[in-house]
Amino acid sequence: MAAVNLQAQVPVDLKGFDKKSGVQATVGEAMLSIEWPAGNAETAKVSIDLNKTNPLIGSLGVGTKEKQYTIARNLDPAIILTVGKRDLVSQNGWNIFFDKTAYQKYQSYAVKLEKTDVKVVSSGSRTEITVNGAKAGPFSGSIQFTLYNGSPLMNVAAVMSTNVDSLAVIYDIGLTSRDTPWEKLFWADTEDYMRNVAVAKMDTVEMMAVKYRTIIGQGKEGNLAVFPAPHQYFYPLDNCYNLEHIWYGENYRNLLPGFGIGIRHDLLGDRRWVPWFNAPPGTQQRYNFFCLLSREKDGKVLENVKAFTHSDKYEPLPGYYTMSSHFHQEHVDDVLTRKPLPDMPGFVKAFRNTGVNIVHLAEFHGPGSPRGPEAKRWPELKMMFAECARLSGGNFLLLPGEEPNNFFGGHWMNIFPKPVYWLMSREKDQPFVEDHPEYGKVYRIGSKDEMLKLLEMENGLAWTAHARTKGSTGFPDKHKDEAFFKSDRFLGAAWKAMPADLSQPKLGKRVLDLMDDMANWGYKKNVLAEADLFRIEPNYELYGHLNVNYLQLDQLPRFEDGWQPVLDAMRKGKFFVTTGEVLIPAFRVNNAVVGEMAKPDAKGNVEISLDAKWTFPLNRAEVISGDGKEVFHDMINLNDTQAFGQKSFKFTQNLKGRKWLRVELWDVAANGAFTQIIWLE
């Protein structure tokens, strides 16, 4: 019997484990037990069952030195990969958005684990446990647990790769048990009310729309919250519908035997373009989720989960106001078609609930008459300006804007510092500008030169929307030598986490690369956060699909006075971009700020200083610089940070021969923030 048991037990490699890390690792009785400091004088514990036939997680617990409380026993990580085909031919390779993977052939696989060996590695303030032997269809790899000192937080990931080309993947996650380890389940509904259900024997699976993307299992001695990375989990969609992101019950999708709780995707997304996640061959994709352990009951652990996203709100920061751009709400069409509307429309409530101070619209993207006739266009603009004025007030400013997609090539956004009447067409016998008896000065635009002239005369700004993908495939590269692009009226480009690739420790690499290319072209351009979303209501999953700009402003302009200070901050780069969890309130290079030139010393050294705040533990800082030809990435490992920190960082870098630099900060959930560029003498 003993000999059989030894054969069934997988080996454990502790050579990379640091005994001085504050974490305890013990192996005994076919169990690897890891106990880590969880903050507030508590310790958390995970036991990995080394018997090949038993559930992977022997137990999860949290407690004190005096007493350990067991939250659950005999759990298995539950990951389903649904694997489809990526179209790499018709458009722009892995940067494609207009793909319909869900409507092509696909197959779903539960990740199966044949435990072969276990490895424990210390990495700064975290501990990584890797269990090899995971497989799912064309993918293979491991199950990995990451434990974070200072918090009862644990990341669970299927780290998988494939050799098959052009695959797109969507994934569901959670924890299952052959028994029923929970007495009750808790979640917050879309109106932010806590709900619960007693766990009973059931033959079905329930799926629900919730707030905060979290489901909580309550055992006899504590709670376990299961939730995804708040932004990375969502591949880009046109609509941020709340697609019932939690599940619980028996035999989920007929692929996960036993009772489970978890997070899910809807395979058809918003029923429009459904690109899923990229999975290039040879990349290490992390199909992951987080767990938070707590001794508290009745769902109170949700408050601790909410802290990681400031309760899905953008935290106020002295000297800054939050701005988000590119929303095809089509509110004007709703008003003009006489739909019954409340005094405060749902989309305004949603933004105000999320802590967004300034919202820049992209109206008339489908409905409306941007190219005429004038009998429709001028009243539509008048209604947009009136509604933006009506809905602005307090700490909220609603700004008119459009995505004209005319004259310049590709798709682009615009903004003026006040209401401007203009038409995207002009007949030969019509003037470029004239005074209208009802609307005042009106412009008719017939060419890219006239469009630039309008931007100059009215002090407006334009920039490339969703650069290098969607309708901007090939742009702004194709017009980088044009006069309008070189103008200071053309701001640069906008950033969104699109496409989605779970092998990357950051979001939105596509536009970050463009940001560096534009700087190496010699242009002083900026990159603005954009959401590029359609309809929005308070019960939608807005936060997961959103990002913002923190603009440096002394005060929020009143709509009636115009909003030139907003455009000034945008044009001068007086802002940073963030998903919300990482903030960079201050950034200097040799005491120079964005908009000023920094001078390296005689050897080419500069001192980079930045103030940072974060919720999830940080992963790394990245100093990106260029010399006009090449781009250089200097990584600074921040794996010694813990959750909920604030620090002033200083890095000395040798940038001899470089012309510019910027900084990015990313956390362990791929949330991040980045600065605008500082130029070097």
TrEMBL record:
It comes from the Bacteria. This is Uncharacterized protein. The lineage of its organism: Bacteria, Pseudomonadati, Bacteroidota, Cytophagia, Cytophagales.
